[in-house]
C-alpha cells in the first residue's frame, strides 16, 4: 500500500470530488501546497481503446505555447555533427555516439536523427525504444531539417504516447508557471490528444482526465473540455 505524506493527504481533502472545467482545475491545483522543488504539471488520460490493437495506438506531439519549463537535452545522430552542434544540439555524432549509448550513457532527453543515419541508429533500438527515446518520423525526430527539429524540441514541443494499460500523460508545464500560462498549455495538450484519436475508435474515446503535479493528488477535469459525448 502506498504511504501518502501529510501534505498530500491535506491536499486531497481540499479537492472537490466533482470534475472541473480546465480553468477551475488549474486554479485548484495551483491552490494546493507546493513541494520544495518546482514540480512538473501533467494531464493524465485513461483512454477507451484497446492497447493490444496497433490500429488503436495513441501517440503524438504538441507544441506548448509557453514551453514545458524543462531544459531539454538533445542528441543528434548525424554524419555532420558540427552542423548539429551549431544548430543547438547538446551532443552529436554517429558511430561514436552509438558506442557511448551501447556503453550505458543515456544523459539526454530527446534523440533526433537524419534519415540516412537511421540505419546505424537501429543498432541501439532495443536500448532507446523502451525508454521512449528512439527517433521516429511520426514525432518529427527523424528529419533532415535538424535545425528546425532542435528548435521545436527545445522550444516546448513534448511527445506523448499511450502505455500498455491505455493510460497516457502529457507534460503541460511547471508549478511556477502563472495560471494563465499553464491553462494555455493545457488547452493545447487537450487539443493535440483529441486530434490523435484513432479513426477506428467509435463512441467514447476518453474515460477520464486529471490534472496533477509531481507531488499532488489529481484534480478531475470534465470530459466536456475535450469531447462531446
Explain what you see.
The chain has 229 residues and is α/β, with parallel strands linked by helices. It contains 8 helices and 9 strands. The chain has 2 domains: 132 residues, 2-Layer Sandwich (Ribulose 1,5 Bisphosphate Carboxylase/Oxygenase), CATH 3.30.190.20; 81 residues, Rossmann fold (3-Layer(aba) Sandwich), CATH 3.40.50. The strands form 3 sheets. Strands 7-1-8-9 form a 4-stranded antiparallel beta sheet. The protein has a 3-stranded parallel beta sheet with strand order 4-3-5, sandwiched between helices. The mean pLDDT is 91.
How would you describe this structure in keywords?
single chain; 229 residues; alpha/beta; 2 domains; three-stranded parallel sheet; 8 helices; globular
Poorly predicted spans: none
Span of the ends, CA to CA? 35 Å
Q: Which overall shape is indicated by the principal axes computed on the Cα atoms?
A: globular
The CATH class of the largest domain turns out to be: Alpha Beta
Using only C-alpha atoms, the radius of gyration works out to: 19 Å
Share in β-strands: 15-25%
Which strand order spans the largest sheet, edge to edge or round the barrel? 7-1-8-9
Annotated CATH homologous superfamily of the largest domain: Ribosomal protein L1/L10, rRNA-binding domain
- Run of helices and strands: HHEEEHEHEHHHEEHEE
What is the number of E strands? 9
Briefly note the structural class of the backbone.
alpha/beta
The CATH topology of the largest domain is: Ribulose 1,5 Bisphosphate Carboxylase/Oxygenase
The number of helical runs is 8
Q: State the helical fraction.
A: 25-40%
Amino acid at each position: 500500500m502506498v504511504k501518502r505524506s501529510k501534505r498530500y493527504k491535506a491536499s486531497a481533502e481540499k479537492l472537490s470530488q466533482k470534475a472541473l472545467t480546465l480553468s477551475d482545475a488549474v486554479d485548484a491545483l495551483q491552490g494546493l501546497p507546493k513541494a520544495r522543488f518546482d514540480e512538473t504539471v501533467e494531464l493524465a488520460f485513461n483512454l477507451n481503446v484497446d492497447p493490444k490493437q496497433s490500429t488503436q495506438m495513441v501517440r503524438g506531439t504538441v507544441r506548448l505555447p509557453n514551453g514545458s519549463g524543462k531544459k531539454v537535452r538533445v542528441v543528434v545522430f548525424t554524419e555532420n555533427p558540427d552542423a548539429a552542434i551549431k544548430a543547438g544540439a547538446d551532443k552529436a555524432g554517429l558511430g561514436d555516439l552509438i558506442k557511448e549509448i551501447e556503453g550505458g550513457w543515456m544523459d539526454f532527453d530527446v534523440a533526433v536523427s537524419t534519415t540516412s543515419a537511421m540505419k546505424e541508429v537501429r543498432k541501439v533500438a532495443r536500448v532507446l525504444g523502451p525508454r521512449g527515446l528512439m527517433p521516429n518520423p511520426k514525432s518529427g525526430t527523424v528529419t533532415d531539417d535538424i535545425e528546425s527539429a532542435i528548435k521545436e524540441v527545445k522550444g516546448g514541443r513534448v511527445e506523448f504516447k499511450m502505455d500498455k494499460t491505455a493510460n497516457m500523460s502529457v507534460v503541460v508545464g511547471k508549478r511556477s508557471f502563472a495560471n494563465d500560462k499553464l491553462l494555455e498549455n493545457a488547452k493545447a495538450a487537450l487539443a493535440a490528444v483529441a486530434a490523435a484519436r484513432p479513426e477506428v475508435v467509435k463512441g467514447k474515446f476518453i474515460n477520464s482526465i486529471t490534472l496533477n503535479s509531481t507531488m499532488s493528488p489529481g484534480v478531475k477535469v470534465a470530459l466536456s473540455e475535450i469531447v462531446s459525448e
